[in-house]
Structure formats: C-alpha cells, structure tokens
Amino acid sequence: MSIKEKQDQLLPLFEKLTTLTRQQLPVDQRDPRLIGVGVLPRGTLFSCFHERHLKEATKLFEIFFSKSNFALFCLKDVKI
Questions:
Q1: 40 three-class SS
Q2: pLDDT at residue number 79
Q3: What tens digit of pLDDT does each residue of 53-70 get?
Q4: 72 Cβ neighbours under 8 A, 6+ residues apart
Q5: SUPFAM superfamilies, from UniProt (predicted)?
Q6: What is the pTM of this model?
C-alpha cells in the first residue's frame, strides 16, 4: 500500500474533529481496547498538565503504538 493510499484512509479520521455531536458510535464499530478513552466531557479543553488528561493521552498512545500494522492502526477490516 502506498503512502498516498494510507493518507487517504487516515484523512476521514480527522473530519469533524471540532464538531460536537450527541450521536453515539454503533456498538459493533467500537473497539473494546478504547474503553475508558474519550471520557473528557464535551467542550473540555485538553491539557497534558492535568493528570486525568495525561493518563487518557498515555493510554491512547499505548494503544496506537502497540499496533503491529497499518490495518490495525486504522481499525479497518480487523476482527478483534
């Protein structure tokens, strides 16, 4: 897979990042490894100087860093 193809797969993950929504992600599309991540209240500004925020960012980093390949990183077509 070329770098361009990988970029094209990642781009949708960055769309609507600043848009608040009440819509929940369907359960079958949720990754169980991400339970507990994303617990900051809506509208809260993230700061690595807040212990709670730093713990959440560390957990997310560990999840992404542990991925062995690009498909797992994108969570696409992967059965967990």
A1: coil
A2: 47
A3: 898 888 888 877 776 666
A4: 78
A5: Hemocyanin, N-terminal domain (SSF48050)
A6: 0.50
